[in-house]
Amino acid sequence: HCVSGWTGERVxxxxxxxxxxxxxxxxxxxxxxxxxxxxxxxxxxxPTLVQYTPSPARLMSMIDPLLPVGIxxxxxxxxxx
Length: 81
Fold this sequence. Notes:
This protein is an alpha+beta fold and 81 residues long. 37% of the residues lie in helices and 12% in strands. It has helices at 18-32, 56-61, 69-77; strands at residues 12-16, 40-44. α1 links the parallel β1 (12-16) and β2 (40-44). The radius of gyration is 18 Å and the shape is elongated.
């Protein structure tokens, strides 16, 4: 008897940009809870080390309508409210 579909034996996570951060943080959470970790991870264009340092990109971000610099500063400082 052949059953088609996913068996759940192998799990792979994939994410791009912020989705990559979700993939990595979910995998790290699985490790901390000692549950099954993914068999594979694909994290593309994932910012894993964000620092607030002067740069041309940082100056351009000061006028970014999607992620205002004030929100980014609060996130980096660990203040989520």
